[in-house]
Amino acid sequence: MSNHIKACKKKDQPDTAPQDSHVSLSSKNDTPKRISSKVKKLITDACVEFSSLDNRPFETVKGAGFLRLMEAVFAAGQRLSALPSVQVTDLIPDSTTISRNINQVYKLRTDQLIQWCKTIDSYCITVDFWTEGHTGIHFGGISLHHIDKNNQLHVFILGCYPYDESDQKAPSVRTFVERILDEYGLKLDDGKYVMSDNENKMKSTFNFKCKRIGCSSHYLNKQLEHGFTSETIDKQPVDCTEVQELFDNIKALIAHIRRSHKQLKLSRKLQVYSETRFNGAFYMLNVFLVVFDELFPIINGSHLENYIKIDKTFLQEVCEFLVPFDNVFQQLSVTDRPTLHRVIPLRQYLLNSCKTEPEDHSGIKKLKEFLRKRIEKCWILEDEHYLATIVHPRLKHFHMGAPGDKEKAVHLLKLAIQNQITSKPTSSNLSPFPDTTANNMPCNKYSNLSNGKSLLAQCFDQVSNPEPFHIVECEEYLNSTTNSDENDDDNILEYWTKQQNRFPNIHSLARKVLAIPASNTEVERLFSCSKMVVTDNRTRLDAEKLNKIIFLRKNLYSLKQLEKKEEVIQGSQKRKSMDEWKVDSEGESEGEQRTPSIVKRHRIGDNNSAPSEDELEE
After folding, report:
1. Taking the mean position of all CA atoms in its chain, how far away is CA 249?
2. Closest C-alpha among 376, 384, 366 to residue 402
3. What is the pLDDT of residues 113-136, one digit of tens each?
4. Is 139 helix (H, G, I), strand (E, B) or coil?
5. CA distance 559 to 517
6. Whole-angstrom Cα distance, residue 362 to residue 311?
7. What angle do CA 24, 26, 32 make, to 5 degrees?
8. If you ran DSSP here, which 8-state letter would residue 415 be given?
9. Contact predicate 180/126, CB 8 Å
10. Which pLDDT value is given to residue 45?
11. What kind and span of H or E run contains 419?
């Protein structure tokens, strides 16, 4: 009995093994286990040493690639924990091996993207060019935008290729772009869109076999640049003298402070004006306003005059006026959702912001008047801007638009759907209301005279032809209401997921125009991406390797998500086919079982049949 009690006590005692050995990655089905403070301290110290010894940014540990590396190392540690002696250096690959495997991963993912491109029916590309600072190589970046039939927006970087044409004229640029598209099985035609900046070279490059849409952010940024830096534009005076004097004085002071190494004495780092940065004047002026009171003690006598000329109140008014512009740039630069429908309302929003008020500074009034005229004249709206706005359920009435915008958008919507229907070769797209009156005109003309009805009755008896289906669809959509959240204007794809069967023709058009971005920000961001890849310590990286690294950096996560969806679809289809095969096999087996039983009963009936006369005589 005593032995039995001891055995029971051993079973009731908790496990005294250290928790450190049981730490594992939590999955969806497992509850996360508590990690001891000693393990956390060990990891923290290792991260500190990693940042210090390898001179890496502190935020490296938050990167998706670093987390993926930690998961792989953790999984490898779990598998190799039983081995007696495994060195860390045995697991880490050589740098040459990493470089070589980048080529393999790039090949795998480009093949996947090529296969995906075969499934798309419409798309928009964005194109831009720049020169890498360290190597001086000229690069061309191209991104692809598409909304699939499940109303999911896909954005991929096709590449950041070194420009290897003989010159930079429009025909050579077009050849360069078409060669890259051809690698992915894509081809430009009248139904495809191109988003680019508004230089004359880009306008000439894409003036045929495609529809070029100008970048809205470039339109707006160029006018702000003229307002702060140009004396004349289109042979007309800019007349923004007060604002430009303020801008020049601040720009000179910032250059002096950064050059004289007095930046460390300020609480914020002064920003240098950049023409290529959207709303660059605002960022320079706004940071200068924040540290304005800190500048007087550190400025020398030679630049003190520039500081005294600056009116802080006027500077604050300029910054407050530029805040709406900065908000618009941010709204137009979103890349993970449609943005083209925002152009018309945001353009009108800025025009309203440029209305002068009696209490405005004289310099602000001049700047507002200049920008208002330039926005109305130079910010060009294409038909696709109106179509993208009218297919948005909460913007289709154009309350924020100019007079006449709604009538123009309704006309473009009906015309675009009609052209879309007539361009389809299938007979199902023909009008469901055929016009049969023309064929019956001769007989109806004389039959009405002999039917015995009065003239007035004949007039009342005329039946009007029904309107085409696409016109009825447009009218029903325009008169419909939506219950979308008033605080959320970005659920347009969710709306069309619910309404695609109700308005099929408008949904097809919405997929096409909403894939067009409002700006070419996705390609613009390749500039900063290339700067992070090619640094002072990494200048020997060749152009082809740079292209592959940027491709993987921008597309790897999205392509993995596509791969997972395809695996789920294939798995469901495989299970469905297996279920159908089981049903068919069960049916066949049942049929095989019934056949011999029937024959058997038939034979039993033959054996038990009535005896013949000979048998009776016997």
Report:
1. 40
2. 376
3. 999 999 999 999 999 998 877 677
4. strand
5. 20
6. 13
7. 95
8. H
9. no
10. 92
11. helix 405-422
Contact status, residue 551 vs residue 106, Cβ threshold 8 Å: yes
pLDDT above 80 (res 581): no
Taking the model in full, what pTM does it have?
0.79
Give φ, ψ of 56 to 5 degrees: -110, 150
Q: Which long-range contacts (CB under 8 A, 24 or more apart) does 173-176 make?
A: 173/129, 173/140, 173/201, 173/202, 173/205, 174/205, 174/206, 176/140
Q: How far apart are CA 5 and CA 247, in angstroms?
A: 89
Return phi, psi of residue 130, to 5°. -160, 170
Residues 6+ apart with CB under 8 A from 25: 71, 74, 75
- The string of pLDDT tens digits covering residues 510-544 is 999 999 999 998 888 887 777 777 766 676 778 88
- Nearest CA-CA partner of 506 in 396, 405, 397, 401: 396
Q: Where are the alpha helices (DSSP H) in 127-273?
A: 170-183, 200-205, 216-229, 241-259
CA distance 615 to 618: 5
Query: Could you please report the per-residue DSSP string of 287-319?
Result: HHHHTGGGSGGG--HHHHHHHHH--HHHHHHHH
For 549-576, letters b (16+ CB in 10 Å) and e give bbbbbbbbeebeebeeeeeeeeeeeeee
Per-residue pLDDT tens over the stretch 238-294: 999 999 999 999 999 999 898 888 888 899 999 999 888 899 999 999 999 999 999
- 354 closest CA partner among 241, 198, 249, 220: 220
Name the H helices within 480-612.
492-499, 504-514, 521-533, 543-607
The candidate with the shortest Cα–Cα distance to 139, out of 107, 110, 171, 176, is 176
Residue-range domain boundaries for the chain:
36-85, 98-215+535-568, 222-380
The encoded tokens of residue 107 equal 């090949």
CB 220 within 8 A of CB 379: yes
Secondary structure letter of residue 553 according to DSSP: H
* C-alpha gyration radius of the chain: 36
- Spell 257-294 as b/e; 16+ CB within 10 A means b: beeeebeeeeeeebbebeeebbbbbbbbbbbbbebeee
pLDDT band with cut points at 50, 70 and 90 for residue 429: very low
Among candidate residues 203, 201, 197, 188, the one with its CA nearest the CA of residue 221: 197
CA-nearest of 320, 321, 299, 301 to 250 is 299
How far from 364 is each of 193, 221, 544, CA to CA, in Å?
Answer: 38, 18, 49
Work out the pLDDT band at 449, boundaries 50, 70, 90.
very low
